[in-house]
Amino acid sequence: MPVEPELITDPADERVADFRDLVAGDRRPGTERGTGPVIVEGVPAVQRLLASPYRVRAVFGVPGRVAALDLPDGVPAYEADKWVVSDVIGFRLTRGVVASADRRPPADLDALLTGPDPAAPRRLAVLEALNDHENLGSIARSAVALGVDGLLLDPQCADPLYRRAVRVSMGHVLALPFAVLPDWPGGLARLHAAGYLTVALTPAEDAVDLAAVDPVAHPRTAVLLGAEGPGLTPETQAAARVRARIPMSSGVDSLGVAAAAAVAFAALRS
Question: Which burial class, exposed, middle or buried, applies to 239 when counting CB atoms under 10 A from its CB (0-12, 13-18, 19+)?
Fold first, then answer.
């Protein structure tokens, strides 16, 4: 039988404490970076959460939206009118439903590099100092769509499980394992040892055309992407095996990092 949501009439009700005072950024007041529950918005994204390995803590929304979800037994479900929902979360929830889930630790780095089949082709996205949650969410969505197997983050990257990153990814980031490479950029040597060709994206004219990188000849490829504006540091570019550029029309010097990532993921998909 479908889960019957419990009615919430008081915004101070502790049953919806996970959703209290969410802010337009991604950090709940009083929580540190990388802590607190994962917050997921919208029916499609919550459905992806339910199919993910993340344990759902609670679901909360307006009448009809919670009922539209195929919730398993044991998931606490609550509903309220839109004014109470707004009072709880601190803004107007246009997507109608929000869920919380327990965080999972980052993936084991060696396991992420190797994958379930050490002989299989493998693609990774490697992000340096990428601190914009919307860009990170867009990259994660493109990664899942275009066959990338995981994310590697330098120590300065934003949290891929912040609410805005999860929202922009449409929940797809929850299906994408990620790990942190603490030794940066020296840790890229671990990718080389695991058989990856590291490809640093840059608009520099002396970089090779991305189309020259053959995904069939290099079945394990890691695309390195830097933050919007500064791009990859010279040290990281020097540590990569290949520096590659996306050819563009005259007068356009570069793409935004999320768009560049999607182009590279598609180009390097064998």
Answer: buried
For the record, the structure tokens of 17 come out as 């404490």
Q: How far apart are CA 170 and CA 158, in angstroms?
A: 17
> CB neighbours (10 Å) of residue 187?
17
Residue pointed to by tokens 């990338």: 148
Cα 118 vs. chain centroid, distance in angstroms?
24
122: left (phi over 0), alpha (psi -120 to 50) or beta: beta
pLDDT tens for the chain, 270 residues: list them: 567 899 999 999 999 999 998 874 445 444 455 668 999 999 999 999 999 999 999 999 998 889 889 898 899 999 999 999 999 999 888 878 999 999 999 999 999 999 999 888 999 999 999 999 999 999 999 999 999 999 999 999 999 999 999 999 999 999 999 999 999 999 999 999 999 999 999 999 999 999 999 999 999 999 999 998 899 999 999 999 999 999 988 777 778 999 999 999 999 997
Instruction: Give backbone dihedrals phi and psi of 48, rounded to 5 degrees, phi first.
Output: -70, -35
Q: Mind listing the domains of the chain with CATH numbers?
A: 6-101 (3.30.1330.30), 109-267 (3.40.1280.10)
